[in-house]
Amino acid sequence: MTDLWTRLAEHARHRGDATALLDKDRRLGYRELPGRIETLAEALARSGTRRLALALDNGIDWALLDLACARAGLVAVPVPGFFSDQQRQWLLDSSGADTLIGPPAEGWQPWSPAPGLTGWRRPCPKPPALPAGTARITYTSGTTGQPKGVCLSLVQQFTTVRALAERLAAPGLARHMTLLPLATLLENLAGLYLPLWLGATACLPGLAEVGFAGSSRLDPARLAQAIRHWRPHSLVLVPELLRLLVGLCTRQPDLVSSLRLVAVGGGRVAPRLLQQARRLGIPAYEGYGLSECGSVVALNAPGRDKAGTVGRPLDHLRVRIADDGEIHVHGGAMLGYLGAPPTAGGDIATGDLGRLDDDGFLLLTGRKKNVQITAFGRNFSPEWVEAEAQGCPAIDQLVIIGDGLPANVALIRPAAGREDELAGQIADLNRRLPDYARIHHWLVPSPSLAARGLLTANGRPRRDAIRQAFADHLHRLTGVSP
Question: I want to staple 232 with a disulfide (CB 3.0 to 4.6 A). Which of 69, 100, 151, 177 is the partner?
Fold first, then answer.
């Protein structure tokens, strides 16, 4: 089975002068890339590193460390920059990381694996057990306060990359620009490994360079500037980034001139948004996946595209629809969740509902549970945020809506006589939450949700009915039609 190392060796022989990795400060060609990976892999192995937490910004250093871990047989633990301090500490503790590259953490000692790289070490004599073959622990956004660690093998990751290369062979993608954090599995595989597999250039600007501040705020002007500077052939976007790109291209049509493929996933994509993008010349194609299945399950592509679907499953996967409508995936399963029994290669029950049409294209129809996915592709459980709000004396009840939206909206019933305290207590609540789960806007419905018949008999919110009833308010506050 061909792996990434074989592909890199071939590129070094046949197109060594071509650029492999590029950021604002450095360029690394294919001829020198394998040697750089080997040298760093040997240094990490000699140091006694077993599990490396990677907390750097997007760039060549992130890419080299990630590749070196894979080459040395070490476990890479990407640290999402959008995690709260508590979630970051949970990741470090629960993963059993013994080496950290990035900002310091309490109790870690300074250490450097190579000139110019700042690292930290700590003893971890009894790290948590991992499924055999674990090469990466990728943490979900966290539907509660403690994100889950998904254990993946190198074979699974390379299999996904190879399948993506086969699905996307037609467009001739020679230059990819990362917009999502490389700590996100989708960008890690599609924005770093896939370009290297194809012999293309992975452009790795820092997140601030493309306009990000946190995980859910982006400056459109900086994004436009980055696209003009890097002139990418391909991008991976979440729905909110596609919406921003559509707005930019409406005013600046020439921004699309270099683009050949824009893959969109990580959350619900409105069909009308995809239609708008296509009319503007943005080659947007919807896909679907989850970390437990290697990040990508299905993908539309040039020549293999059907509107209203998320594409056909990748060739190495088998998708079936259970009797209750839930999507099950076989053939690309994770090794297991950190701290849980291995999955033994069985089906992954996705929690999503859908169907396969007569041509084998997958359509999504909903989710079994109430997990909400923001327009920036971040998962959170509304019950988690609503439970946290119970500690606010000024709030009698709170219902949060964020699914498919760029900003979360809360409907609040304030405690009588404490309305003036709402703003301060919501600010305090937000400080305890990661930015993707925070309350960005709120309303005080009048009449109340109960008076409108939007609560069940035991007081639980009827979420679909609430979303429909407040559709105009959500559109006014977020600019998105639910």
Answer: 177
Residues 6+ apart with CB under 8 A from 263: 190, 234, 235, 236, 237, 285, 287, 299
Q: Is the pTM of this model over 0.70?
A: yes
pLDDT tens column, 289-320: 999 999 999 999 999 999 989 999 999 999 99
The DSSP bridge pattern shows strands 234-237 and 261-264 to be parallel
- 290 backbone dihedrals φ, ψ, rounded to 5°: -155, 155
Asked whether the beta carbons of 452 and 462 are under 8 A apart, the reply is no
CB atoms closer than 10 angstroms to residue 189 = 24
Nearest to 4 by CA among 121, 156, 133: 156
Indicate the SS3 state at residue 280. coil
Given a contact cutoff of 8 angstroms between Cβ atoms, the answer to whether 452 and 105 are in contact is: no
* Torsions phi, psi for 235 (to 5 deg): -140, 155
d(CA 286, CA 219): 24
* Portion of the chain with pLDDT greater than 70, in percent: 96
| Phi (first) and psi of residue 202, to 5 degrees | -95, 110
**Residue 78, strand partner residues:** 54
* 144: confidence class by pLDDT, cuts 50, 70, 90: low
Q: How many CA atoms lie within 13 A of 129 on its CB side?
A: 7
- Higher per-residue confidence, 391 vs 472: 472
Q: How many CA atoms lie within 13 A of 294 on its CB side?
A: 28
Phi, psi torsion values for 340, nearest 5 degrees: -125, 165
Is residue 294 classed exposed, middle or buried when 0-12, 13-18 and 19+ CB atoms within 10 A define those classes?
buried
What's the full length of the chain, in residues?
482
**Is 450 in contact with 373 (CB distance < 8 Å)?**
no
Strands (E), 371-421: 372-373, 379-380, 395-401, 409-414
Tell me how far apart the alpha carbons of residues 322 and 302 are, in angstroms, rounded to a whole number: 29
d(CA 60, CA 58): 7
Whether a cis peptide bond, with omega within 30° of 0, leads into 447 is yes
CA distances in angstroms from 88 to 55, 342, 450, listed in the order given = 10, 24, 38
Quick one: which of 159, 224, 231, 222 has its CA closest to 201?
231
CA separation for the pair 181, 59 (Å, rounded): 10
- Quote the tokens at residue 233: 């052939």
